Amino acid sequence: MSEPVIAQKGPYAVELEAGRxxxxxxxGRSARQPFCDGSHKGTGLEPLAFTAEKSGKAWLCGCKRTxxxxxxxxxxxxx
Length: 79
Hints:
The chain is mainly beta. The chain has strands at 12-16, 21-24, 48-51, 56-60.
């Protein structure tokens, strides 16, 4: 299994829609950050499927090292 690539050292601010399913990029290689575009193929890393609980702005992890995926927990501050 590959290590995830740090897509950016900070979160992505995104608008989510309640009840909609999203696929958060876990590998860091997607050109559609923070969402998956299939670039993980062959890495051994898979995207994280999640359903938004509420509509509105969310901060999704960009460094791929959060302790509460897909949401940012500030881990990027120590990188």
